[in-house]
Amino acid sequence: xxxxxxxxxxxxxxxxxxxxxxxxxxxxxxxxxxxxxxxxxxxxxxxxxxxxxxxxxxxxxxxxxxxxxxxxxxxxxxxxxxxxxxxxxxxxxxxxxxxxxxxxxxxxxxxxxxxxxxxxxxxxxxxxxxxxxxxxxxxxxxxxxxxxxxxxxxxxxxxxxxxxxxxxxxxxxxxxxxxxxxxxxxxxxxxxxxxxxxxxxxxxxxxxxxxxxxxxxxxxxxxxxxxxxxxxxxxxxxxxxxxxxxxxxxxxxxxxxxxxxxxxxxxxxxxxxxxxxxxxxxxxxxxxxxxxxxxxxxxxxxxxxxxxxxxxxxxxxxxxxxxxxxxxxxxxxxxxxxxxxxxxxxxxxx
Length: 350
Known about the structure:
The model is unreliable at 1-48 (pLDDT under 50). The chain has helices at 2-25, 56-66, 70-83, 88-108, 112-129, 133-165, 170-189, 194-211, 217-234, 238-251, 278-289, 302-305, 346-349; strands spanning 267-269, 293-299, 314-318, 324-326, 330-336.
C-alpha cells in the first residue's frame, strides 16, 4: 500500500518536472487578440464605381446643352456635382458647359462688347469648377481673349471721342498702338474668327484715323498701312477710303503741273518774189518753201507800189524778202491792182 502511494507520488513529480523542463524550451507565444463584441466592430467603406454618363442629371444635362439650353444644362450639372463631389468628370463637364455658354453669348450678341462681358462671368465660373489642367488652360485663354476684347473696345471708344473733338493726346495715341499689337496677337490666336477679324479691322481703322491728326509724314505712312490692313480684314468702306486717300496726299508730293513744251517751228527765209506771177508765188511759198499761211493783197495806191507803178506781178512781200521767220508766220504777197485805179491809168497806154 505504501509502495503504491510512493510510486504514484513519484510519477506525478517526474511528470511535473518534465513539464517544467519542456516549458523552458518552448518560446513564449503572443497573447491572442481580444475578442470584439458586436458593438465594438468598425464598419469599413465599400469602394463604389460611379458611371458618370449613367447619372440621370448628367444624361439630361447633355441633352439640354446639345439643344443650346445652357442654363438648364448648367443647373443639372451643378446638382450632379454637389451629389458626387469627388467625380472630377462631372466638374469638367460643368466647366465645359460654362465655356460653351459664354461662347454662345459672344456669337449671338449684337453688341459684342456686352457679349464678351457676359462671357467673362461664365468663363470665371468654369475656372472655379474645372479639374483637369488642360481645361483650366483653355478657360484661361478664353478669359484672356474676353478681357482683351473689352479693353480694346474701351480704347476705341476713347479714341472715337478724341477724334470727334479733333485732338488725340500723346498718351492715348501711344495706347492706340498698344491696341494694334493686341489685336495682332488675337488674330494669331483666333485665325479665321470673324468676330476677332471685325474687331481688328475697326481697331486698325480707328488707330489710323488718330495718326492722321499728326502732321509728320511717318504718322501718315503708318496710318495708310493700318487703314489698308483694315480693308483686308473687313472690306473697303467710305472711312477706309478717306483714310488711305488722306495718307496718300500727305506722303506723296503733289506733282507740279507742267506746261507742254511748244513744238519747235522751223525758221524759213523769205525768197525774192518780185515780178513773179501772183498765183505761182503763193503756191511756191506754201508748197516749196513751207510757209503755212500765205495771203494775197491787191495794192491800188501808187504810193504803196513805189518805183515802177506799171510793173506786173508781185510787187513785194511782207515781211520783206530775205527775212528769216518761223514757218507759221503769215506771209502777205502784194501785187498791183486794177490799172483803172487812180494813178495807174497811164499803164494802160503803155
